[in-house]
Design a protein that fits this description.
With about 140 residues, this protein is of the alpha+beta class. It has 6 helices and 5 strands.
Length: about 140
Amino acid sequence: MSHNHDVPTDLTRNQGLVLGALTQSAGPLSAYDILDRLRADGLRAPLQVYRALDKLVDRGLAHRLESLNAFVACADTLCHRKGLIAFAICEGCGKVDEFADTVIEERLGSWAGGTGFKVERTTMEIRGRCAGCLQAA
């Protein structure tokens, strides 16, 4: 039994390495950032990284930030069950905070129900400045 119960044990070696790189990173990483960090571990081809990222995103273990074309490890183990994830991205330092908001989810749910729209996944990206950057200004 591994002591970290949050990481699934059925990941491939590459998926585990990619998830590890995302988990250890302070901020979002592009596929090429991940490749640079994992060269020593034998990952050489961008395709290896993209394949691993696709699987991690499918399983809700990582998220793609569309506006940055970068990836982050999932911070909330429940979020992939909720289907709605929001990210606050600081324009100053690049820090990304993940949260799942029930208010937005309920509003979206009632709108979708009313219009007959089937929501498969929702990722919101909110741009602004974090408290640290605001204090430093």
